[in-house]
Amino acid sequence: MHDTTLSRYIDGLFGYAMVLTRNPAAAADLVQETYVRALKAKESLRPSSNVKRWLFTIQRNIWLNELRRSRPQIVELEAHDDIADVAIATSQDPHAQYVSKLEQEMVRNAIQGLPVEFREIIILREYERLSYKEIADMLGCPAGTVMSRLARARAKLRILLLGNEQSFQQTESQKAKGRSQEG
Amino acid sequence: MNPCDDAAAVLRYLDNELGGQELETFRQHLESCPICQVRLEEERAFSIVVSRSRPLYRAPEELRRQVSEILKQRRAAGSGLGIDEWLLRVLQRPVLSRWPHLPLGLWALTLLAVSLCLIFAPDVVRRMHAASYVETAVGTHRSYLEGRLAPEIQSDSPTLVSAWFAGKVPFDFRLPASRDSNPVYRLVGARMVSYKGRNAALVMYETQREKISLLVASTRAAEIAGGDEVRSGNLLFHYFSQEEFKVITWSNHGLAYALVSSVSASARESCLVCHQNMPDRDLYRTRP
Questions:
Q1: Cis amide linkage into residue B170, ω under 30° from 0
Q2: CB contact under 8 A, B56 and A31
Q3: How wide is the angle at C-alpha B202 spanned by C-alphas B198 and B204, nearest 5°?
Q4: How far is CA A152 from CA A11, A136, A142, B40, in A?
Q5: E strand intervals along A44-170
Q6: Model confidence pLDDT, tens digit, residues A124-159
Q7: pLDDT tens string A109-132
Q8: Phi–psi pair at B185, nearest 5 degrees
Q9: B283 chain-A contacts, CB cut-off 8 A
Q10: Cα–Cα distance for residue pair A140/B237, rounded to 1 Å
Q11: Shortest distance, CA A103 to any CA of chain B (angstroms)
Q12: Count of A-B CB contacts under 8 Å
């Protein structure tokens, strides 16, 4: 396995770390530690192993250990500007980029508003495209639990997204109203 | 079950998690069910909105630089075997055949170095013990195939076989009853064997074409480690291909298990021999 194989997962690992920690600095530390541990354990990885799941599992285990070790210090932060700063920018025309960025922010905020077990399962399935079985192996639970948790997470995310969308539309229409009154 | 009653069926269909007959049944149902069609479209639209925001986050440049540095340092340090991996590989080979030309003095020094390494590398010792358990399981299975280890009790009843072991092995051992109404394998019988001076259980199974054996010993005597590791629920399975056999080992509640077969598939896929009619069969299929 080449190191380049490992580096291609950096965005996915950082995204997963963000939904686990909701803190960009903690997420970056977590990703770095994941790479350090993965390199130490690299020899044990078989050619047939799923590298992506292996890396994500290492990262999850580090996070869980850290959570157990220093629970009082771990505080889940609310989504703030720092988080938005590390979001990916799209390469579209300015208007499409603006709309896409808003939509992405809405989705991101809605996901960060979910409980951690829902955030985690949404990112593993919807963004990392892991199968139910791969997620079940990672989380150490039956595939049936993954299925039901994912269904609840999606339902909750849908509600949160709808709320965000409605408040966004309200803000936009208020802005438009304000502009027409000024005019 | 009517797919309409299974709320997760639409999501599983959307996620490509339905297969075989389930998929066919759901497709047929979908064609004639407007409720599920609407559900599917809603879920699909929702999934598209979520997918459009991929990737949700991009690693900051500083983190990319740091990770790149970590990988560079590793490359600079070389990618040779770690000391314990090296030791394990070396120790598993016949020593005389590796270095027949070494003079006696060097032999003594080598032995001393190896002894010191063993003291300071307990993981190596653990893995050697685990490899020894796998080898014993394979050897026992071969004896069973060649007719040198006949069952001491012949029965297809897990209850009878479990009762036969009571008081014979130094652990509480009960075979689970098959939950499969039409099992691919059947219990043939069992016998006592010895592992590291302690009694262990050898349970024999058969499929139409294969013989399968399960060696069970106390984890006080047997170690489980190494191989291709796959976690399933709370259990960690270790898959090995040894000689012409496939071996799967795991430990649970103080017992070490080694299942040996000679099916012509990967060790992981060999689970399908017994699990192909069970609900968890997809766990053992290799994804393309």
A1: no
A2: no
A3: 175
A4: 26, 16, 16, 16
A5: none
A6: 999 888 999 999 999 999 999 999 999 999 999 988
A7: 999 999 999 999 999 999 888 999
A8: -115, 160
A9: 133, 143
A10: 13
A11: 7
A12: 130
Dist. CA B173–CA B152, nearest whole Å: 16
For the question of whether the overall pTM of this predicted structure is more than 0.90, the answer is no
CA distances from A101 to A108, A109, A110, A127, B184 (A): 10, 12, 14, 17, 55
ipTM: 0.76
Answer whether B41 touches A (CB < 8 Å): no
β partners of residue B235? B232
B204: β partners: B189, B213
Q: Which tokens is B125 given?
A: 């010792």
